[in-house]
Amino acid sequence: MFIYDKSIRLLDSTLTLDARNYSEACCISHAHTDHIRSHRRVFATAPTIEFMKRRLRNVQATAVNFNAPFGFDGYRITFLPAGHILGAAQILVERDGQRLLYSGDFKLGESATAEALQVATCDLLIMECTFGHPRYQFPPRQEIIARVCDWAQATLRHGAVPIIFTYVLGKSQEIMKILSDNGFALSVHHSILRLAKIYEKFGCQFGDVVLHRRSAPMENRILIMPSSARRTRQIEKIANKRTLYLSGWAIDAGAKFRFGVDEALPLSDHADYPGLIEYARRVNPQKIFTTHGPADFARHLRALGYQAEPLISKVQKELF
Ligand SMILES: [Zn+2]
Ligand SMILES: [Zn+2]
Questions:
Q1: pLDDT over threshold 60, residue 319
Q2: 199-222 pLDDT, tens digit each
Q3: Closest by Cα among 311, 316, 319 to 103
Q4: I need a surface site. Which of 127, 165, 174, 229 has the fewest CB within 10 A?
Q5: Model confidence pLDDT, tens digit, residues 56-69
Q6: How far is the CA of 84 from the centre of ligand 1 (A)?
């Protein structure tokens, strides 16, 4: 049904999925940089296209709605919500009664800003496995959110500046939404705010948010910054601050020291290990190919009775 050679390409077709190489036609699951690049022709959801236009120069894209199948080279393609970031899709490909599902990046359960994941069944599943090791089990989401809010409240009460470092697209806007819904006022880095404008365009409302300017007073505001700003002079110059790093990787021992912050909490927009297993169970495929994560995850799936292998070899993949 597909051929894999660094990129996933459908058999007898020019259509690729999240291709790393330039492609004639490519379905793009979502706008994180490891999934996008310029192609001759792109199919993606409307928010993904808007994000791509902010990140790439040349975007020739056709907007695809969720649950609105379209035809391409004899295939039927359907985008389904993936619960990862706004506009993120799983891509379902059907031909001759065979169903291939490409998960893209996904998360089961609730998100403040992404469309909830929709489960589909399939014969062949290509799934991401970023957190594909049993040590990656996140605490309940409500517990993490409560800890972020308590930390921000305590920091402000002590007259210090709370600074949250996180990923520019997706996680930043989610924590903006969570904090503003909890009554906090925010000051936001321009790279995050310009993407938040796209969230607003698609119906997300953020509350009391201002653009962060070095000269402006930060009294009683939480500062939201890109992870890459952690060791910049701009941050160093802020006296009396407390810093928090927000990422699934915060679950690793020593994360605070590694990321050079006072606190690290694992709010993730990916499925954790139990979430990955639960996803495989619900999708109920005959065969699984794993990607974007530890090759060892396929071994865990095999131990649970699945036919699974990492998507690494340069071969044609068929069900039979
Ligand atoms: Zn992603
Ligand atoms: Zn990714």
A1: no
A2: 999 999 999 999 998 877 778 999
A3: 311
A4: 229
A5: 988 999 999 999 99
A6: 7
The ligand placed nearest to the CA atom of residue 32 is: 1
Starting from the CA of residue 292, give the closest ligand.
2
Number of structural domains found in the chain? 2
Q: Is the dihedral of CA 210, 211, 212, 216 positive or negative?
A: negative
Question: In this structure, are 8 and 91 located in the same domain?
Answer: yes
Q: Nearest ligand, CA of residue 270?
A: 1
Same domain, 276 and 131: yes
In angstroms, what is the span from residue 105 Cα to ligand 2's centroid?
5
Ligand 1 center to 147 CA (angstroms)? 24
Q: Domain of 116: which CATH number?
A: 3.60.15.10
List the CATH number of the domain containing 145: 3.40.50.10890
Same domain, residue pair 218 and 110: no
206 and 125 together in one domain: no
Q: Which range marks the domain in which residue 65 is found?
A: 2-135+270-317
**306 and 277 part of one domain:** yes
Which ligand has the minimum distance to the alpha carbon of residue 34?
Answer: 2
> Do 196 and 84 belong together in one domain?
no
* Centroid of ligand 1 to alpha carbon of 128 (angstroms): 10
What are the distances in angstroms from CA 126 to CA 35, 157, 164, 221, 299? 14, 47, 33, 42, 15
CA–centroid distance, 30 to ligand 1, in Å, is: 7
The bound ligand whose nearest atom lies closest to the alpha carbon of 18 is 2
Q: From ligand 2's centre to the CA of 237, what distance in Å?
A: 33
Q: Are residues 245 and 154 in the same domain?
A: yes
Residue showing tokens 């699934």: 248
* DSSP H or E run through 146: helix 141-157
